[in-house]
Design a protein that fits this description.
Elements lengths: L1 H13 L10 E3 L9 E7 L2 E6 L4 E6 L4 E7 L12 E2 L3 E2 L11 E4 L4 E5 L4 E6 L4 E7 L9 E4 L4 E6 L8 E6 L4 E7 L6 E4 L2 E4 L2 E7 L4 E6 L9 E6 L4 E7 L5 E6 L5 E5 L3 H4 L9 E6 L5 E7 L6 E5 L4 E6 L3 E6 L10 E6 L2 E6 L5 E6 L9 E3 L4 E6 L2 E6 L4 H19 L2 H11 L1
Helix pairs in contact: 1-3
Keywords: Signal
Protein name: SMP-30/Gluconolactonase/LRE-like region domain-containing protein
Organism: Talaromyces rugulosus (Penicillium rugulosum)
Length: about 425
């Protein structure tokens, strides 16, 4: 029993804060609302944020925690034609025509490719932080997610095209800086009806898997798979090579870790289609494409994920669950009203997920205004999230890596030990 107590102690001792609950630095920034930001990334100590509020890409040095430059030249937040109020703060934005959106860093070329709201992909030189080229895809609406396959020398961008219900993807040659091909996603349903709610679907984000040189596109809902799909795209043949249908996930972001597993961040839409109970939350998935697309992990309590990242230094996924919600079921508003009512509570958080155990190691409270994107730098072990109060930087504790390793080791031993617990208890009872 002493061994069991030690294992339990090790397990809970390992569950320390990976990051200080309080940020190490906050860089001033004034976002408008939840639609103010696109994606973000880190390269050589520089943090890049697609900022629709200022029609620009913001550049922050994460070492000095100073603002470097604002790279302008994007469409910004385009007002919605109906101009309805959004969160009582500003006019509702037409995201189909707003930008910047997705970004992709090209380390071998020191360039940043950024999708804009008019179907253009803008190329930024990371040497002088300026736009050096504008590539037209021919799309009438925004180019959204962007990813890079260095092996094929191809950039892939998506055009959700929600208004015309004709989502498509474009392959761009970074040498010629022009479109080399395109693919249409015919089965994607851009307007899904779930329990009476109209949910905008279409294409979400892209992950690139080194080794296989394939792009993986998340689609929130399709006619064939209403719960969403992961679509594998071959950059060499410029075609769809495989499709995995999902049940009740409605995926948003996807990200790979080095062992080949794919984290799939499910959206808060799944909560609309599931049987609801008090305190219920959604989940996200871990998929292993190399083994017939098997689902190898279910990350309970993590949903409403817009963007996710992975740190090889920590062996962890970071999921910006800015649309995370919980629900409370009430029996009615009065003694005469017994109809169940749903009361939703917003609970925006950042989840740090152990890629070995597939369990949430830590939660960091964020906000649902702009905390929808996340970037992590394995070299400096810094985490960056844009929040209402500013661009927020968290620093890994000096002893957190050892705690992390201890926690994983303890849980691994404990898992194997639990199987023999009945025998241990029986022997102990015999001698007592």
């Amino acid at each position: 029993m002493k061994l069991f107590s030690i294992l339990i102690l090790l397990t809970f001792t390992g569950a320390q804060w990976l990051y200080h609950p309080k940020p190490s630095a906050i860089v001033p920034w004034k976002p408008h609302n939840a639609t103010s930001v696109g994606n973000s990334g880190i390269y050589k100590n520089q943090y890049y944020l697609a900022d629709r509020s200022d029609a620009a890409v913001q550049v922050i040095n994460i070492t000095s925690t100073k603002h470097v430059v604002t790279i302008r030249g994007f469409r910004g937040l385009v007002p919605h034609p109906r101009n309805t109020s959004y969160a009582k703060e500003t006019a509702k934005s037409n995201l189909e025509q707003s930008g910047p959106n997705g970004i992709a860093i090209l380390p071998d070329k020191s360039e940043l490719y950024v999708g804009d709201g008019d179907g253009t992909v803008r190329v930024i030189s990371l040497v002088n932080n300026s736009i050096v080229a504008n590539i037209s895809t021919g799309a009438r609406r925004r180019t959204s997610a962007v990813a890079y396959c260095e092996g094929a020398g191809i950039i892939f961008v998506t055009d959700p095209n929600i208004e015309e219900n004709r989502p498509q993807g474009f392959f761009i040659d970074p040498l010629e800086r022009q479109v080399a091909g395109q693919v249409t996603f015919n089965s994607v349903n851009t307007n899904t009806l779930i329990r009476g709610h109209h949910v905008t679907s279409s294409l979400s984000q892209i992950a690139f898997k080194p080794g296989t040189d394939r792009f993986y596109v998340s689609s929130r809902s399709t006619y064939v798979n209403p719960g969403g799909e992961i679509i594998e795209v071959d950059p060499f043949t410029m075609s769809i090579s495989n499709i995995l249908g999902l049940d009740n996930c409605y995926p948003l972001d996807v990200v790979f870790c080095p062992n080949g597993n794919l984290f799939v961040g499910c959206s808060s839409v799944q909560e609309l289609s599931s049987p609801l109970v008090n305190g219920s939350t959604g989940y996200s998935l871990i998929i292993e494409p190399s083994k017939h697309w098997s689902i190898v992990g279910n990350v309970s309590g993590v949903s409403g994920v817009y963007q996710a990242a992975y740190s090889s230094g920590l062996g962890a996924y970071f999921a910006a669950a800015y649309r995370e919600r919980t629900v409370k079921i009430t029996s009615g508003n009065s003694s005469n009203d017994t109809t169940p009512h749903e009361i939703w509570r917003s609970a925006p958080q950042l989840a740090i997920i152990n890629s070995t155990t597939h369990q949430v190691q830590q939660w960091i409270e964020t906000d649902n205004r702009t905390g929808r994107t996340v970037a992590v730098d394995p070299a400096t072990q810094k985490l960056v999230v844009p929040l209402r109060r500013g661009i927020t930087i968290y620093q890994l504790q000096s002893n957190a890596t050892e705690y992390w390793k201890k926690s994983v080791a303890a849980r691994t031993v404990l898992d194997s030990y639990v199987g023999v617990l009945p025998l241990v208890f029986a022997i102990a009872a015999f001698f007592l």
